[in-house]
Structures are given as C-alpha cells and as structure tokens.
Amino acid sequence: MAFKKRDKAEQYGLINQTSGKPSKHRDELFHKKHAVFFKRVLQVLPSQQLDTHRISVAYFAISGLDLLDSLGDIENDKENIIDWIYSLQIQPNETGTNLDQCGFRGCSMLGHPYDTQQAKNQQIPYDSSNIAMTYTSLASLLILGDDLSRVHKKAVIQGVKSLQQDDGSFVSVLEGSEYDMRFVYCACCISHILNDWSGIDVKKAASYIVQSLSYEGAFGQRPYNEAHGGSTFCAVGSLYLMGRLQVALSESQLTALRRWLLRRQDTGFTGRPNKDADTCYSFWVGAALEMLGVLDLTDVTFNRSFVLSAQSPITGGFSKYPNHSPDPLHSYLGLAGLAQIELTTT
C-alpha cells in the first residue's frame, strides 16, 4: 500500500523523485487567482443545463470567496445578490394553501428576478421549491451577512415537512424525485439554520440513515446501496446535526465507519474503493473524519499536496483531478478540504 501511494504521488508530481520529499510547487495556494475564478463564476452563472441549479453554483462561489477571506471583493454586489436570492423564494399566499410548496427555487426561470414584491403578488401555479436549493439559498444569505429576516421560516419548514417520505427519506421537490441521503442532509441543515426541527420526523430520518449503513461499514445513498464517501458525509453530518451520531450507531459500527473512511486515503481521498483520488473527497471524507474525531490520523502532507496539485495556475480554481479543467464545485470543495487542515489562511 505504501508503494502504491508513493507511485501515485510521483505520477501527480506530489513528491520529488530524487529526494522523496513533497514538491515545493505544490505548497503554494494561488489565492488571488482563485478569488478571480469565483468572481468570474458569479458573473457567468449557467443558463442552460444547470440553470435550475443556479443558486447552488452561486453558493460554491460565495462560500469559496468566504474561505479565501475575499468577500470584500464583491462588497458592491452583495445587496444585489441578496435581493436576487430572495426573489427565488416561493412565498406563502394569503390563504396559506401553498405552504407545502414553500422554500427556494434554483433560478429565476419561473420567477421574477430581483423583484420580491412581484414574486409575491404574481405567484406561478405549480411552482415549488427544491430542498437542495433552499439549503444553498439560506447558507448563501448567511455568508453574505443577511439576518434571514425576509425568510418565511414557518413556510419553509412546512415545505421541508412535505418532502419527507414514509421511510424517513426526503425527495427534492414536491412533484416527486429520487430520494436519498443528500436530501436528508439538506433537510437537517435547513432545520439547523432556522433552529426549527418541527419539519422533520427525526426518529424516522435517523432510522433511514442507519438502514443505509452497508456491510462495508459506511453509508450508501439509500438502503442496500454501495457505501460512498459523499453519502457517508451526508449521513454522518445529518446524525451530527440531529445530535444522534453517538446514539444511533453502536461503538463497533462507529469503529468500522472510521476505518472505512481512513482507508479512503490514497494520495488525496477517494469516494469508493478502487477509485482514483478526487479533490472533492478531501472535504467529504475529511469532514466526516473530523466529525468522528479522527481526521488527525490522516496523512495531511499527501492530502494537501494532492489538492494543491489540482489547482489551475492559469485561470484559478480546482479540478477533479490534477491537470484537468477547474469547475465551481471542486474549487469550493477543494478549498473547504484545505480549510480543514488550516491551509487557506497562509
């Protein structure tokens, strides 16, 4: 295993083949280039395939700038961005008959951009919120310094409640969708942010999470699915927010979970066995290990060097693998992974 890790480290240029030490050029964070990358993302948000997820892409950029301590770079645009996010809110009507639909949509395609009053007065039939977009909207507002005073909190919580299924899982939209661990995590984050857990049957949600624990020792997206780094983060994060991490799982299950996560380190971290390391899992797996109290057992040097090797020295941003094109998701998660090992402040 040690030889395999060293071979891959040399392949990606993470270590000097002569000295065996980490390559010096992998120790530099291109801070200014990444800030420019995220500002560019905010200026050219997707308008086709990812249009309905536009707020999530904006969240990656806003949170990325926050991690870089560069929110001041968009100071003049903050209020404009905040107003745009609020215009994505599905607001309750006067009779309260649409509460199950309330929350935030992902883009203004079905709404009224920048005009919250028009959005309230001219509501669109069959227009429903998306639980993931509601989470990223609320998180973005908080990062931008908003006090959430314009959020219809009770309506948002009712919108979350309407999405929980009988088995404890959540769908993303009222009209129906796939149901899995991602949306359980989003529901928990929304409840935590608004300090209101009345929209979740916590017992059912925790039961769904435990049933999704695979024979491998980690969590799949749903019961009987293969264990995966992303769904494991969502499961651990959900139990952590619910205050049930140490209650829902036995000590032997927690030990097996820690072991599975620790074994995901190659140079960086992989999402599943026999897969290559991927920038985003430095956060997904790293954050799960941090919540479980064992992130200090990982090889920080290899992790840091791998993530930094995925930077683009030309455009800024991080890619999935070294020498690939950067994208907003991996750029944000790469920085978030580095933040866990306290690199972004240097």
TrEMBL record:
- The answer to whether the entry has keyword Metal-binding is yes
The record's annotation in Pfam families points to:
Prenyltrans
- Prenyltransferase alpha-alpha toroid domain: from which residue to which, for each copy? 29-341
EC number of the protein: 2.5.1.59
Q: Which domain of life is it from?
A: Eukaryota
Annotated Gene Ontology MF terms?
CAAX-protein geranylgeranyltransferase activity; metal ion binding
Q: What CDD domains would the database entry show? A: GGTase-I
What cofactors are annotated for this protein? Zn(2+); Mg(2+)
Broadest EC class?
transferase
> Where is the segment annotated Disordered?
1-25
Keywords attached to this entry: Magnesium, Metal-binding, Prenyltransferase, Repeat, Transferase, Zinc
Entry similarity comment: Belongs to the protein prenyltransferase subunit beta family.
Subunit composition and interactions: Heterodimer of FNTA and PGGT1B. PGGT1B mediates interaction with substrate peptides.
What is the protein named?
Geranylgeranyl transferase type-1 subunit beta
Q: Which organism is it from?
A: Elysia chlorotica
Q: What is the organism lineage in this UniProt record?
A: Eukaryota, Metazoa, Spiralia, Lophotrochozoa, Mollusca
